[in-house]
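Final report, closing paragraph on structural work. Over the funding period we assembled a curated collection of sequence-structure pairs, and we close with a single example.
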Amino acid sequence: MWNATNGTLYKTLTGHTGDVESITFSPNGETLASGSADGTVLLWALTSATLEPEKTRKITTDINGDGDVNIQDLVLVAANLGKTGENEADVNGDGTVDVRDLVLVAGALGKVVASPSLHPQLLGALSSTVIKEWLSEAKQLNLTDSTSLRGILFLQRLLAMLTPKETALLPNFPNPFNPETWIPYQLAEPADVSLSIYDVKGLLVRKLRLGHQPAGVYQSKVRAAYWDGRNKLGELVASGVYFYTLTAGNFTSTRKMLILK
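Its predicted structure, as stored:
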């Protein structure tokens, strides 16, 4: 219950286990009836004690306070997971930043966005493995309110976006480059990944062993393969054309890049 004039929170009335779908006041204004999706109707006596202002911070899904709920807010909650105490990322105000807060922000996103886009910040901060973990935790919580359910649906769509349908080697950036470059790729399924770099004579210059990687998109500087322009002896290579080959399980693909000094 809020003061509509100054925005002061008078009281938070708890008791329903589902969304509150309707409310009505008695003619004398001393009783409030609330109907809920949980199939119950509760009566609240509006005494003077009920109307005593309650001190609380404003809770919002706009974590960074830029006036818009977007993917950056989801990333901020993810960065604060596990933290306790006063925290803007604690959306539900329970004292801990956890998957419940993630789902609430995702629910706000899902209300206005039909399908998430692969924002560069999103690609750098999130992965399909992380999203799967969040969805698994959310499932164990048995969340039933409409916002959380919408948030879970948004995360499922996000997972689909972060799980490529095919494995691919992508153009390195920058290209031409000097002295370093990033080599992006995407995996449709988990695989042991390595990148081999060759000169124009076909001689192996450097092999980057990236280890076993889960399915996902590896396009940002944080996740893409990195080459510092050095050979296996640690020496800077000469200017010219080089080829890089991605090996991921049974998949192999080669592209060309250029070093200019």
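Residues 100 and 141 are 8 Å apart (CA to CA). The mean pLDDT is 86. We thank the funder for supporting this effort.
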